[in-house]
Amino acid sequence: ALYPPAWFFDALVQKSVLDLVLLALLLALLAGAGRLEGAGWWRGWALAGVCLAALALTRENALVLLPVVLGWIWLRFGERPAVLRLRAAALLLAGMSALLLPVALRNLALGGELHLTTSQLGVNLYLGNNPSTDGGYVPLRPLRGNPVYERQDATELAEQALGHKATPGQVSSYWLGRTLSYIRSTPLGWLRLMARKALLVINLREMADTDDFAGWGAYQPLQRTLWPLLNFASLLALAVLGVGLTWRQAATRLLGTCALVYGAAATFFIVYARYRYPLVPFLVPLAAVGLVEGWRRFRAERRRILVPGVAALAALALSAAPQLVHTEAGTALTELSIANDLAGRQQRPADAVVHYERALALLPGYTEARLGLADALDAAGRTGDALREYARAASEAPGDETVNFNLASCLLRAGHPAEAAQFFRRAIAINGERAESHELLARALFDSGDAAGAGTEYERAARLEPGSAKAQNNWGAMLARSGDLAGATERFRRAVELEPGYAEARLNLGKALLATGRRAEAV
């Protein structure tokens, strides 16, 4: 109740809230499932299986806890007949199957592939194991860290490499192959990365994701007050002390092993505060035991606390000492998140500008914040300031598609079609599969006097997105402006066929028909 990250995550609309509830429920069910026979003995084991399956659906790597729980059943009741232990394990698995099997069958029916949870394993492993990452998230394409793009980018890059359309399972297999290739090619580099991620998992500081604990603390005085005492380092140190003092107890072995196995599994992926948060329900009761039993042992016989105490101090030192996480980046991320919300959901770009500028004051080279600032200035009608920031973003990230595309779009709206065409070409050189880039390049070329080049780009846009009524309508508008009414009529008619409710295309078609003397059709 007093652990600051716990109520930090409670305040967010994220899966982390479910992680805490489901893990606490799982531990409660296992604590109550202490019988292998008698009236109603089976309910606890079956419900524990259902709970573990629900946890796996919210946090896929929670499946690593299954062998731990099965092993605990076998050892915890070692004096009981094997058939009774096998029966309890079977009930646990049946409870899991009751929840996971319908999901797997639904995946098979809708996607053509059998997946117990998701098909993201390969992508998630690659995100945590590649030459670009230091343990945190690096998007597959620069400046596309938004979750909206992650699946799309993973699929498009895999299909480009494979040379054909890929199923979700094939996409996952492709990225799994990339991960294994990286590990084989640079084993020492990968081991150094794993060591760093292991330290990140137990680090005092909370790794920032879409929401940052440290940045959020700037707006929460109570968090700043409690954090020096109640933090992950103190929790881990007390938990290690509790394990050392009570290892012979079955509950300690279960909690300690679950924490160790889940922590090890977390190091194989990117390390964020919310990804290690499931460790907390295991560590809190162990820390409580360490606090109470440690004080009792210290008062009764100080020698018996020496070895566990040294281990606890070592855990504290490992957690608190390495400066692996810099709070400036987290605070800048918080300001960026506030700005994105103001500019996007709330449609208040002028207010967002202040927070983008704060993020850039903390991290001057924060290209994503620079791009957001330029977008907000553009939306607020400050075109000159927007162009200046777009130009700075382009100089910081010349190889980024979004930066070049947004700069080109702003230039086009500002009446500089020749310059816009230059940056649209840069965006297309980075990613030529985006139909909108070709379409806007066509407009820029036409406004620059290159009608033939514009027609070529519209054709490319239409090939990339044959079902786009908007592309056909805009192509027709260009043809109409150049005097090709027959070609314009064909494009407008195609747009209406693709989208019968497209009023603008119908109006344009009517005008083109009227201009060619086909009055009845125009009506």
Tally of strands: 0
> Can you count the helices?
28
Give the fraction of residues assigned to helices.
over 70%
Tell the overall outline: elongated
Radius of gyration: 29 Å
Distance between the termini: 70 Å
Which stretches are low in confidence, meaning pLDDT under 50 for 5 or more residues running?
none
Summed over residues and divided by their number, the pLDDT gives a mean of 89
| Percentage of residues in strands | under 5%
Largest sheet: none
Order of helices and strands: HHHHHHHHHHHHHHHHHHHHHHHHHHHH
Helix-and-strand structural type = mainly alpha
Structural summary, described in words:
- The chain has 28 helices and no strands.
- By secondary structure, it is mostly helical.
- α18 runs antiparallel to α19.
Q: Which terms would index this structure?
A:
523 residues; mainly alpha; elongated
Compact overview of the structure:
With 523 residues, the protein is mainly α. The chain is 73% helix and 0% strand.
Secondary structure layout:
Layout: H1 4-10, H2 16-32, H3 41-58, H4 65-76, H5 82-111, H6 121-128, H7 147-162, H8 168-185, H9 187-201, H10 213-217, H11 221-226, H12 232-246, H13 250-266, H14 273-276, H15 280-300, H16 306-320, H17 327-343, H18 349-362, H19 367-379, H20 383-396, H21 401-413, H22 417-430, H23 435-447, H24 451-464, H25 469-481, H26 485-498, H27 503-515, H28 519-522
